[in-house]
Input
Amino acid sequence: METKERAVGIIGLGDMGKVIASNLMETGWQAVLYNRTREKAVYFKESLPHELQERARVAANMDDLFGLLRRRPGDNAILWAMLPGGGPTSTLLSSLVSTGHLRKGDTVIDGANTDYNVTLAINRLMASSSVSYLDVGFGGGPEAARKRAARLMVGGDRAAYEEVAWVFDSVAGLGNYGLVGGPGAGQAMKAVTNAMFYFLLPGVAETCLFMQELADKNGGELAVDMKEALRLASKIPHITYEAMEAGSEAFMYSIREEGAAPRLQLKLRAPEGQAGELPGAVSDPKVSEQVTRLLSDAEALGIRLPVFRAVFDRYDQLTPGEKQLYAAIKRRITGH
Output
């Protein structure tokens, strides 16, 4: 593949930083590498295939880094910071502004996991120097990113995002990245998806053990091949991805004013192929009789299911908006 002219500066060569640099170089772009421990950057470059080594430059210091990114007069720098969130990233970027290394027209992509309030503060600092700032929440770790299977949730100005969309395309692959809102939205969405993970995982663990224990409590009469059962369960759409897709499709967009970002409103539409919108009032969500009976059997057998019970006991506490969205998602998935 022909080497392309543009270069991206990568600061921080931890596991994810190395993946970002590799993915960029594999798609033909050049990477200028900087790590506080320079030997780490040199070692990383030397471990690359020869073709990629030709697209990598190791910067000795910040003057060197920005000099390599500004090869021609008027060139703007694109910098991807992959440092620990909070203090290290804020300190570095503040320093680069005060020293004049970052200047008007440059773009900073911040991939650190951090509080969205921190990204809002950094964005204000960057905006004061007319530097574009995009915060990126990663959905998936280094292994997924290496396979271009991670999802990049980007927050920031749309014009700045579109200007460097080729970077995200190279790192994540088409369809695996998107602008989820203004400054801070990338990290806020990352935190929300993490919360969802911590919410779902105990239920997954409890479900797996529940099935095995249910079989054991029935004296072997209920035989279960757990490996095969879980393999098939993992392929069920509404367990994997369909619930989130349905939630997205349930919303109708409303433009606040011309040129403004779409604002989601709880005005829910019926699933595709079904006419009309959902009514403003919906019936209370209920657990199916089959599931209720299964839980009763489990409790009678002495099987504890604290996660299931905590979730199901909250159904009658859902807000009207939650009930409406629940109904829309369920209807989108099941048709009723």
Notes: Strands lie at 7-11, 30-34, 56-58, 78-81, 107-110, 132-139, 151-155, 177-181, 251-255, 262-268. The first strand starts at residue 7 and ends at 11.
